[in-house]
Model the fold of this input.
Amino acid sequence: MENVIEIKGLTKEFKVLNRHEGIKGSFKDLFSRDYKIVKAVDDISMNVGQGEIVGYLGPNGAGKSTTIKMMTGVLEPSSGELIVNGRVPYKERKKNCEDIGVVFGQRSQLWWALPLVESFKLLKDIYQIPDKDYKDMLDIYGTMVDLDMLLHKPVRQMSLGQRTLSDILAAFLHNPKIVFLDEPTIGLDVSMKSKIRELILELNKKKNTTVILTTHDMGDVDALCRRIVIIDKGKKLYDNDIQHLRGFFGSYRTLKIRPKEEIKLAADELEKELKDLDIKVSISDDNEWINLLVNEDKIKVLDVLSKVQSLHDIRDMQLEEISTEEVIKKIYEGGI
Ligand SMILES: Nc1ncnc2c1ncn2[C@@H]1O[C@H](COP(=O)(O)OP(=O)(O)O)[C@@H](O)[C@H]1O
Ligand SMILES: [Mg+2]
Done:
């Protein structure tokens, strides 16, 4: 597999003002020479091959967007090596743009007032897409989304979901080698999220496009990424196959129970009752289930279940593998 991205010891430092508190502080800031250096990206190395979909993950402020800005040529690295499609992005920013596509979360790259088809025609000119390739691409899009409905609608009249779809279609239109997606499903409802995921997956398959994806949505990661790279405070913590990561946590199961009692109350009680068993208690996002994260190397799920049943009335239960979200939480907590 040919590498389309090669990164070695990549570092980006920002010089930021040391802020002072209060009104006196902000007055002080006006004249201050009191700077500190923030290492937004700190000695990151990795290669990405043609056709890979890589989940680039980390908490807020980890350095994800800064890395993407360097890869797209918007920012110049402070040190280290960065080659994208055989070029140094910030030195050949224009050329670099011809071979990449970018979608930044809620900020659309499209012409607001124009129907989508007019934006497409402009992009066709800008990237000098041959007629045949343009037509082929629209044919492909037509098999994936309700294109007729989108093409004639001004972008500003679109729902967030339609706009995100359009942004993604626009990013792939000139058949770039790499597409960068920074939080593409943020703010979308469940069905639109799955539509977007299908679209990305199909375009990746059809065109062998490399995709670099940042997201906080573990559903995106589970649906799209075979490989994940996790960074925190600018440093790379993990870079491997997602299956490999799950293997590390293979002995973990999530026992989900639905109590008859009020859920928060039951969860608090369970937390106390199971304290000595090294079981993590949490409530699901939909507020329906209590999740018990059990390490089966230490205690069997069945033993946990009988203990829970002896203490509480249970309406329903389910058993699940550890979720990607929980795996990643464990990594942040230093579990690997
Ligand atoms: N232009 C900038 N000037 C100063 N600090 C910045 C700038 N851009 C980002 N940072 C800082 O760099 C760190 C990483 O930011 P960012 O790459 O946006 O993180 P992420 O995308 O992972 O949330 C943060 O501490 C952020 O405050
Ligand atoms: Mg970001």
Notes: The CA atoms of residues 7 and 120 lie 32 Å apart. The chain has 13 helices and 13 strands.
